[in-house]
Amino acid sequence: MNFQEFELSQPINDAITQMGFTSATEVQEKVIPILRTHQGDFVGQAQTGTGKTAAFVIPLLEQINFKSKKIQALILAPTRELANQVYEEIKKLGKFLPLKATTVYGGVPYVKQINEITRDNPQIIVGTPGRIIDLIDRKVLNLSQCHQLIIDEADEMLNMGFIDDVQTIISSLNQTKKMWMFSATMPDPIVKLIEKKFSKPKIVQLEKRISGNRNIKQYYFVAHRRHFGSALKCFIDANPDSKGIVFCETRQDTKQLAELMQKRGVSVAALHGELSQSQRDDSMKKFKDKRVDFLICTDVAARGIDVPNISHVFNMGLPKQYESYVHRIGRTGRAELKGTSISFVAPDQIRKRSAIEHFTGQKMEEISLPDANTLKKLKIIKELHKMENIKNAILSKEDSFALDPSFVYFQSYFSDLTKEQALKLLFTYRFNQEIRHIDESVFVDTAPKESPKRSPGRDGYRNRDHNRSRSRNKDQRKR
User: Fold this and answer.
1) Total Cβ atoms within 10 A of residue 18
2) How far apart are CA 130 and CA 134, in angstroms?
3) pTM
4) Phi/psi at 220 (nearest 5 deg)?
5) Which is nearest to 82 in space by CA: 182, 169, 6?
6) Relative to the CA of 39, which of 5, 62, 391, 435 has its CA 20 to 30 Å away?
7) Short-list 159, 198, 193, 165, CA closest to 179
8) Residue 79 DSSP one-character state
C-alpha cells in the first residue's frame, strides 16, 4: 500500500517523501487507518523492526493541536534508547509541522529536562516511567490536558519491572484519555492490564511476524562458553567488512567481552546499564557514525537501537525468552537487505536451540570456524589494502626520502639483510602477535552435540552460580 493512499496532510506526506518511504509496512497498513479515525483505546501486537513507531506517530501527529501550549500526548518507552528513537521519528515525521516535543528519562540531571518542559511548552512528551512519575510528583508535568497515552514495548516494561509505574501513570491522567498500547507478546500481566485499564480496545495482531525474517541467514556454532570470545573473533576476522551487534546476557559479560575484543584489535563499543547516560550516548553515536564496527550490549540496553545496514548479529549464548531471539536477529536484514545471525550455543542450550527453531519455524544452519590459513590471508589482504595508498604516495615522492636523515638511519638498519630477510623481519614485526591470536582462536574446543545432564556452571567470562537470580525492579529503574 502506498502512503499516498492514507490521504495524510501535506506536511506529513512531504516528511515521508523526504525520508524515502514509499510503501507502507504491514503494521502501518493495518494500524494507521484505524488510529486516524478510532476514538477509543487500541492494542497492537507487533515485533520490533516492523515499522510500528511510524504506525502510531503518523496518526498522532494528525491529531495534535499545534496552537495549544499544553501537553496533549504522553509516550512511554522502557529505555532511554527507545525513548530517543521514538523522539527522533517524531522529529522526522513532524519536520514540516509547528511541532514541539521533548524526551525525559533517568540517568541525567533534571535541570535541562525541566527547562525544556517549562520553556518550550511541548505538545508531546516521550519518556521512561520512572522519570515521568518523578516529574509529575514535582509538579513539573501538568497532564490535565493530556488526552493521549501511548505505551510502547509493553512486554519489555513488564520484564523491567515498570508495570506498576505504568499503572500509576494511567491513573494520573484524566478519564477522557485515549490509550494505545504496542507489545511484541501478550503475557498474562499485560492481558490483565488491558482488561483492567482499557475500555473495549480495538485489537490488531501481527503474530506471523514472529516467524522471523526470511532475509536473515541463521547459523549456530556449538562450543563451551569459555571459547565464545575466541570464536567471535574468528567470525569477525572472516568477515572483514561486517558491521553488527553482539548480544550478551549480563552487563558484566558485555563489559568483559568488549575489553577482550578491544585487546584483540576489534573496533567495538559497549552499551550496558552501568554506563552513565553520556557514555551510553557516546557508544551509540560511535556506532551510528561508523566509528566502531560492533556494538556489544545486553537485550535491555539494545531496546531502541535502529541502525541501518547492520550485516551481522551475534548471540553470545541463546536468550532465555524465544521472543528475545527474534528481537535480536531482527536488527539485521531490514529494508529488504540480507543479514546474518550467528548464535554461539553452549552444550546445555542444545535443546533450547531446537525449541527456538520450532518457535520461529526456521532452521539454524550449523557453521564451522574458518580455518587459520584463511583468516591469516584475509588479515594480510586487509593490511595490504590499507598500504596501497601509502605505496602510491611513496612512489610519487621517492626522491624526498633520500634527504631525510631519519630514513637514512632506518635504511642502514636493513643494509646487511637481503630483500627476503627484510620482508620476513617486517612481516614478523607487524603480524606475529595477530597471527598467534588467530592460531589460538581456531583451536576452539567445540562442544558435544548433545545436551549434558548438568550445566557446566561457567559462562566463559567469569565464574558464577549458574542459577543466580537477577533482581530487575530497583536495579533497572533509574530516576
Assistant:
1) 12
2) 6
3) 0.62
4) -140, 155
5) 182
6) 5
7) 198
8) S
Rounded to whole angstroms, the Cα distance separating 470 from 217 reads 32
* Strand 42-45 to 178-183 pairing: parallel
Q: Which of 328, 400, 338, 386 is nearest to 360 (CA)?
A: 328
Element (H, E) at 221: strand 216-222
Q: For 139, list phi and psi in degrees, rounded to 5.
A: 65, 20
Yes or no: say if 254 and 296 are a contact pair by the CB < 8 Å rule.
yes
How far, CA to CA in Å, does 272 sit from each of 17, 48, 76, 95, 384? 35, 20, 20, 31, 36
Per the document, the length of the chain is 479
Contacts with 407 (C-beta within 8 Å, 6 or more apart), sequence order: 401
Give the single-character DSSP code of 25: P
> Domains plus CATH for the chain?
3-209 (3.40.50.300), 212-371+444-476 (3.40.50.300)
- Residue keyed to cell 568488549: 258
Residue 319 in grid coordinates: 536468550
Q: At what angle do helices 419-441 and 228-238 cross, to 10 degrees?
A: 130
Distance CA 248, CA 254 (A): 6
C-alpha cell at 3: 502512503
Decide: 258 and 270 in contact? Cβ < 8 Å.
Answer: yes
Cell of 340: 546474518
The 3-state DSSP class for residue 201 equals coil
Lowest model confidence (mean pLDDT) among 145-149, 263-267, 331-335, 435-439: 435-439
Q: C-alpha cell of 131?
A: 522519570
